[in-house]
Amino acid sequence: MREKDRFSENFLWGASISAYQAEGAILEDGKTLSIADLSTRDESGMCQNAVSSDFYHHYREDIRLLAEMGAKAFRFSLAWPRIMPGQEGVRNREGIAFYHRMLDELKRYGITPVATLFHYDLPVSVQEAYGGWKDRRTVDAFMSYVRICFEEFGERIPYFLTINEPDILFMYGGHGLDLHGREPWRRERLKINHNFALAHARAVNLCHELLPGAKIGPAFGYVPVYAKSCRPLDRIAAMNISEQQNQFFQELFLNGRYMSHVLDFYAQESEMPEIEESDLELLSSAPSDFIALNYYKSDVAKWCETSEEPQEMQGNAGGRKGTCVYPKVPGFYELCANSYLERTNWDWEIDPAGIRVMLREVYHRYHLPVLITENGVACLEQPEEGSIPDEERIAYLRDHIRACREAVGDGVELLGYCVWSFLDLMSTGHGASKRYGLVYVDYGSKERKRIPKKSYAWYGNVIKCNGNEL
Ligand code: BG6
Q1: Is 164 in the pocket of ligand 1 (CB under 6 A)?
Q2: 128 φ, ψ to 5°?
Q3: HSE of 121 in the Cβ direction (CA atoms, 13 Å)?
Q4: How far is the CA of 427 from the centre of ligand 1 (A)?
Q5: pLDDT 10s digits, 178-204
Q6: How many CA atoms lie within 13 A of 217 on its CB side?
């Protein structure tokens, strides 16, 4: 293998969780509810969000497992309603102490913390006071919380992510935004996105002002798009959807620039945000230090004639392969299945080459180092005689890590790779039934017993050989 095709010596091999999906303890030690806590608690108890994987009480054991696997990095999120649960600027000492204890554990094992500032858990009090992210006052409230995070943890956390997947929130719905139903979500989403961008830029600038040693960047969910054929209109269709779900957000967050044709497209159904001149100045003067990317799947697009009937995307909610309905947007694109690829039970295409496409598309456009903060596959799993032989996950991770290494050979500056997820946790859309972890969590047991899966040991070996012997 050529030297330049290898992962760097200080490559950040890691694994990820987010607060509301893993911590549980939603009303403990001064924490108040977030909108994510509400929207994922259903009556069947499927999501069990109140306890979830109970990371809040198991963090010592979990970080020990992380260390024994050999992890170099841990990507988690700080929970706004745990740190600043009520009045703006007022700190919750107990919540802050929890994260200090967690950071102490990471330090003990030499694991680098990578912290997301916002992963969907807006305090209900902010939602009620201002109507949530569609109102600029929420940006001010966010900044008050971010200042606390920087003052409390800034010396201890070298990598911050601002907002997790503003693009996926925009594209796929109101979860995490407390906007139930398609209409309110469509109407408000341009305003929400604009405020996310302002919040991102202000957090970047505050980080640079207060913490010269720390690095900060956005976290996008990226879905590369192939054209179904070499028909030129299929290529236009692929560009349309790729710009609408990928580049629109990157140009805004990284360059402070609205792609006007995409803005016009969305403005057909969404109210326009008030874009003040000072907003654009702010957005273009907040240089990110790196780009975090979450990758799961790719899409295929073909041209959709204007005479066609529109079709809403209908995700596969039940985990039954082949039940998703692809969207049709006449005059723009239509998505369809990729006949070259297998799919997961939830109809997500398994496409290792797609992660390489993504890394090249993003790195060679923005020339910023990239950190993979999420990549993984969900499975329906049960222990078999006490163990979980998750061969499907091993194959998925192996092929994606190989593709990342190939992207390094293509010249991409890759800082690290974090598996989603370290532990089984609550899926955003499917609660406890959709398991992503390297470590199994027994939701049936009160003590939430942990069982490392086969992929846990396998990934440990990948880390040991620095991903170069796959
Ligand atoms: C990303 C999110 O969109 O994908 C995670 O950052 C999420 O929070 C992950 O869990 C997988 O999506 P889902 O819906 O399968 O949980």
Answers
A1: yes
A2: -70, -40
A3: 28
A4: 6
A5: 555 566 778 899 999 999 999 999 999
A6: 23
The pTM of this model reads 0.96
**CA 404 to the chain's CA centroid:** 18
Over 50: is that where the pLDDT of 45 sits?
no
Q: Which amino acid is at 167?
A: D
- Whether ligand 1 lies within 6 angstroms of the CB of 136 is answered as no
Token pair for residue 450? Answer: 């942990």
Radius of gyration of the chain (CA): 21
- Asked if residue 244 has its Cβ within 6 Å of ligand 1, the reply is no
pLDDT of residue 403: 98
